[in-house]
Amino acid sequence: MAIDAAHPVPPAIARPRGKDQVPAHVPEELIRSSGLTTGPQFLASPHDFMAGMHRDYPPIFYDVNEFCNAWQLIKHADALFALRHWEFFSNEGATPFPRDPHDYFYFIPIEIDPPHHRKYRNIVDPLFSPQGVLKLEGLIRGRAAALLDGFASRGECEFTTAFGRPLPVSIFLDIMGLPQDMRDTFVQWAVALLHSTDRAAMAQAMKSIVAYIKQAIAEKKAHPDAGVISRIAHAAPDGTPLSDKEVFGFVIFLFIGGLDTVFATLNNIWLWLARNPDRCREIIARPDDLDDIVEELLRRWSVTFSGRVVAQDLQMRGVKMKKGDRITCVLPACNFDPEVFPDPLEVNFDRPRKTILAFTVGVHSCMGGHLARLELKIALQEWLKRLPEFCLKPGAQIVYRPGGVVGPESVPLVWAQPRR
Ligand code: HEM
Q1: Which CATH number does 19-414 carry?
Q2: Rounded to two decimals, what is the model's pTM?
Q3: What distance in angstroms lies between residue 161's CA and the mean position of ligand 1's atoms?
Q4: CB of 268 closer than 6 A to ligand 1?
Q5: 376 in ligand 1 pocket by Cβ < 6 Å?
Q6: What tens digit of pLDDT does each residue of 293-317 get?
Q7: Which residues of 136-171 are buried (b: 16+ CB within 10 A; e: fewer)?
Q8: What is the pLDDT of residues 106-120, one digit of tens each?
Q9: CB 297 near ligand 1, within 6 Å
Q10: How many A from CA of 369 to the centre of ligand 1?
Q11: Do the beta carbons of residue 358 and residue 299 sit within 8 Å?
């Protein structure tokens, strides 16, 4: 069965799991079980754990676990190389999301290697360019202000549900052309897919997302609008309309990639701000440096990873990798590489500018990166204008979710009521 001429059904790419499935070419001394994304040490304080990887692990090691064994790359330079050389490190089969092999589709653009990849990005990139997202500034600012107006006088909130989640998710739904009243349901599905360690729960979430997206695409085909789903559904690069599977794989990936990442980032940053009120004062005092401030916060609190499949045998740092092996660029660890970012856990708004890996680099660099930066900037401005001083609610328990997008589950905050 062909998906379409450009992308036939891929051969099954092995997803080796556990100690019994370590390939013979992996040397014993490079095998570890780090517990990255799921283990108790990681979940106690994920970013400290990932910074500590430079002390506790070799620069490249083979991580064995019950989900998917893979080489882990933690050096900034190694990740730059891997992410910029798709001819060695392919994206085909690199995502962890389950699919029905009898109704296979690609996640677009993330699973497509060049040269086909560009045709898809060209459809949506203009909307997400720095100039494109600036058109959304008023909408984002208005939404942030309205949310804050709803709870600022209460003296407390749970940050995730009051602000961190509704702000980016509601903007995303507007961009896509999806209804606001489905917001919480979408988030529930995305969280189950991205954070469940139970494959059956992931598959169930995937089923719900698939059914909803199929119906949304049919509706946009019949009634075009200005949203991204409609744009993709009606796209005809080089005069040829995308196939149904291409449209579906594209829309569903945006849904997965765009819902969870921004609020995880905001949660991490607001937790840190709540614990460091002097840094709120510093941000307020430096309004002209906000772009550098946002960049440093994204380095310090990056939330996700880049997985790839080795496309041809190669060696890195003397480590032999073979075609079909999996790698993960541990982007937060790369952002803590002390050779590139001295004193890496320190939030230093005056660091010399270096390439940060929060949004990855290379052909698959995040399509939503400029939007995310703008949302973070506006969120800081609007929040600190109204609530310059806040702290963690006494007794609050901070719990991190396992999975591929790193952030605390909830961040309960309190602040003094404004005097009347
Ligand atoms: C702070 C928020 C965000 C972070 C940290 C983030 C991070 C990333 C990373 C690391 C990748 C590369 C994954 C890989 O190499 O395997 C990526 C890709 C992508 N992201 Fe984001 N993302 C964010 C927000 C968004 C938003 C809001 C959207 C959509 C509106 C989005 C859409 C995408 C898409 C479509 C790709 C695939 C790009 C391609 O394959 O060409 N992201 N993102």
Answers
A1: 1.10.630.10
A2: 0.94
A3: 22
A4: no
A5: no
A6: 999 999 999 999 999 999 999 999 9
A7: beeebeebbbebbeebbeeeebbbbebbbbbbbbbb
A8: 999 999 999 999 999
A9: no
A10: 7
A11: yes
